[in-house]
Design a protein that fits this description.
Length: 103
């Protein structure tokens, strides 16, 4: 759990993903379209991936991936990220941590 907490605190936008996950890909594309480059951790390619998965679940993730953190706080998975975006709530969360002038 310490590794996950450390990784989340090091960058403004952090995405825990699996390289074969289509929902993870959708979240990556959304951020790309918004001009945001999250720090992506492919947990299926990390030797500590299984422990990271368990840590994400303990932190409140309903599913281990995708898990999006903005400003060190858990936003959630695809559902929560897409809902925030559609309701206009995602960009205000991203502005202070992304370093970009999002519209």
């Amino acid at each position: 759990m310490d590794k996950v907490v450390r990784l989340v605190s090091e960058r403004g936008v952090v995405l825990f993903s699996k390289s074969t996950c289509c929902l993870c890909y959708a979240v990556k594309i959304l951020f790309q379209e918004l001009g945001v480059t999250p720090t992506v951790h492919e947990i299926d390619q990390d030797p500590e991936g299984r422990e990271m998965e368990r840590a994400l679940m303990r932190l409140g993730c309903k599913a281990p991936v995708p898990a999006v953190f903005i400003g060190g706080k858990l936003v959630g998975s695809t559902n929560e990220v897409m809902s925030l975006h559609l309701s206009g709530g995602l960009i205000p969360l991203l502005k202070p941590v992304s370093g970009f002038a999002l519209s």
